[in-house]
Automatic annotation (TrEMBL):
Name the UniProt record assigns to this protein: Transcriptional regulator, AraC family
Originating species: Marvinbryantia formatexigens DSM 14469
Keyword set, alphabetical order: DNA-binding, Transcription, Transcription regulation
InterPro entries registered for this protein in UniProt: Homeodomain-like_sf, HTH_AraC, HTH_AraC-typ_CS, Tscrpt_reg_HTH_AraC_N
Domain HTH araC/xylS-type: 194-292
MF (Gene Ontology): DNA-binding transcription factor activity; sequence-specific DNA binding
PROSITE patterns for the chain: HTH_ARAC_FAMILY_1 (PS00041), HTH_ARAC_FAMILY_2 (PS01124)
Superkingdom of the organism of origin: Bacteria
Database matches in PANTHER family: ARAC-FAMILY TRANSCRIPTIONAL REGULATOR, TRANSCRIPTIONAL REGULATORY PROTEIN
Length: 299
């Protein structure tokens, strides 16, 4: 896997990279180069992989803090944040990453082609850990084959599709397999709901009503709320609250904001309400939680 990462680093640095998003000429494959600490994550409707190639990335999600080193990847999901934080830059003082986008049909077709017992094992998280680790390495090798290998052969849509299928299989058998299947299954019937969820991610600091979101999509409030909860796992206002609290946690941990500053910055009008909501979500008051997080991260 280390060889594949080094190969991609070398090939990517041959490109004329600009800050941010860089198209590669390969459908669905995008390279990212950042020199700033705060970076924007991909905003696409389809499922995707995000592979760290050089540097180290931190994502703050409602599920917790996720750190990714070179050679590690994340899969798109409903609570993927809009922004990430670069913890470590490369020797060239930049951060390199790549996203590979799939269509929902690509993933569903591969899932349907799996042996029944394999699908069941993935969903019940019963795959052997060693096998999952090898599959995660195979994901990176497939990405290298898609990006670097395709330039060494006659460009072919046939070749690209087969490598993508191989990559999806490796993801399904890896550490993110169950999560990947769930995100795709949930996305297929709920495109308009995911548009609303993306809007909330962009505007969670501002006040809004469920009525206004429903009206924009020509739905009744009850139907919109039902569809949103089915696709996202929570109601729109609960989604907003989780985004606010997750961002406040990041501000206090990474930017050393105090409780009042963080609560105001994410849209709270009442600090006492912020503290109650924070304790309910994270299990302890903000100051105590941040102190525990710092101790954990220093280990």
């Amino acid at each position: 896997m280390e060889t594949a990462i080094r190969t991609m680093q070398k090939d990517i640095r041959k490109l004329s990279l600009k800050e941010g998003e860089n198209q590669t000429g390969i459908p669905g494959v995008t390279v990212y180069c950042f020199e700033e600490e705060k970076i924007r994550m991909p905003s696409v409707d389809n499922p995707y992989l995000y592979i760290v190639l050089d540097g180290m990335l931190r994502l703050h999600t409602p599920s917790g803090i996720m750190d990714y080193m070179a050679g590690q990847y994340s899969v798109s999901r409903i609570d993927t944040p809009l922004m990430g934080t670069v913890l470590k830059f490369s020797e060239q003082r930049d951060f390199l990453a790549m996203s590979v986008e799939f269509t929902v049909n690509d993933v569903i077709t591969t899932v349907l082609g799996l042996d029944n017992d394999l699908t069941e094992k993935i969903m019940k998280e019963q795959l052997d850990r060693n096998r999952m680790a090898l599959s995660d390495e195979a994901v990176i090798e497939s990405v290298d084959k898609l990006f670097s290998g395709i330039y060494r052969a006659v460009p072919s849509e046939f070749m690209r599709k087969n490598i993508l299928r191989e990559m999806i299989y490796a993801v399904l058998c890896g550490s993110c397999g169950r999560q990947f299947i769930q995100s795709v299954v949930n996305t297929r019937p709920a495109e308009e709901i995911y548009e609303a969820n993306s809007w909330i991610k962009e505007n969670f600091r501002d006040s809004f009503t469920v009525e206004s979101l429903a009206e924009q999509r020509n739905m009744s409030v009850s139907l919109f709320h039902q569809k949103f909860r089915s696709a996202v796992g929570m109601g729109p206002l609960q989604c907003q609250k989780r985004l606010r609290l997750t961002e406040a946690r990041r501000l206090m941990l990474d930017e050393r904001k105090n409780v009042t500053e963080a609560s105001v910055e994410v849209g709270y009008e009442s600090v006492s309400q912020f503290i109650r909501d924070y304790r309910k979500m994270f299990g302890s008051a903000p100051k105590e939680d941040i102190l525990n997080m710092k101790k954990h991260l220093e280990k």
